[in-house]
Design goal:
By secondary structure, this protein is of the alpha+beta class. It is built from 6 helices and 4 strands; from the N terminus they run ααααββααββ. The protein has one domain: Trafficking protein particle complex subunit 3 (Muramoyl-pentapeptide Carboxypeptidase, domain 2), CATH 3.30.1380. The longest helix is centred in the N-terminal third of the chain and has 27 residues.
Length: 190
């Protein structure tokens, strides 16, 4: 071995052997946990430096924009066609959640008609972490801001009720949002 020999190829091989000890589900779970740790620390750093109002506003903007980017990336990678019905969108949403962190939320999805659905969240990692950090009473929802990013990326016009804002769980309310899609008439009911 010379003094200027590139160590990367051998290090990469050894690192690959170590990473190979993880099963694909273990690797995915670890990546999700690392991302969530980053997310939480970023939020708290902004809150400490600039206050909760700024942290909430920037978190909602970032979550929405991340949602747009990831929906486009995932739809392209998985070959998902543009949603032509509510059922198409709901499947895409579940695919996104299934990859990005299926264990982060406990929720129910119910159809309210041909173009509307409701998501009721029983357990939410963001609320749970905000409670542990002592900031839940000032937390605004970033989860549904991400979902609105998915909707925008998929080219779907929608209305959401209630409006995004303060964490419903932090207000002592049930966390539930109704989303109505403005689907073209030819797709409604298909």
């Amino acid at each position: 071995m010379t003094e200027h020999e590139d160590l990367k190829p051998e290090l990469r091989r050894k690192a690959g052997d170590i990473l190979g000890r993880l099963s694909p589900p273990e690797r995915e779970a670890l990546l999700v946990k690392c991302w969530m740790s980053h997310d939480a620390r970023w939020f708290m750093a902004v809150a400490r430096e600039f206050g909760m109002e700024v942290a909430n506003r920037l978190n909602q903007i970032a979550a929405h924009e991340v949602g747009k980017a990831e929906a486009q990336r995932l739809a392209r990678a998985l070959g998902l066609p543009p949603p032509a019905s509510l059922d198409d969108y709901l499947l895409a949403q579940e695919v996104f959640i299934g990859l990005l962190g299926p264990d982060l939320l406990d929720y129910r999805v119910t159809k309210l008609g041909d173009n509307a659905f409701r998501v009721d969240v029983q357990r939410c990692f963001a609320h749970d972490n905000a409670v542990r950090a002592g900031i839940a009473d000032r937390l605004e929802c970033g989860i549904f801001a991400r979902i609105t990013g998915w909707l925008d990326a998929l080219g779907l016009a929608y209305e959401i009720s209630p409006s995004l804002g303060k964490c419903l769980k932090a207000e002592g309310r049930e966390c539930g949002y109704t989303i109505t899609l403005a689907m073209p008439p030819r797709f409604i009911g298909s």
